[in-house]
Amino acid sequence: MKLKKGIVLGNIDGKDFAIATGKLGKKFHGLINNNKTAAYIFELLQTEQTEKSIVDAMCEKFDAPRDVIESDVNEVLNKLDELGILE
Question: Contact, 10 vs 18, CB < 8 A?
């Protein structure tokens, strides 16, 4: 899975966000405000990933129990799937 073409990531004054552009912007209107966890997941999803590869990368980056990271990743991926912005 990865982000659909047209998702642009940005950071203004330390605030991470994602917006849909182009054809995708016609289906998804809005701005997604990301915390550090979600911002890193979005960064990883710019290339093809599995849920496990995201969890593994996050375990290396963040000092948190694996089960907490797995739960957070699952929550973010489910939301992105609901929004229709994952391939």
Answer: yes
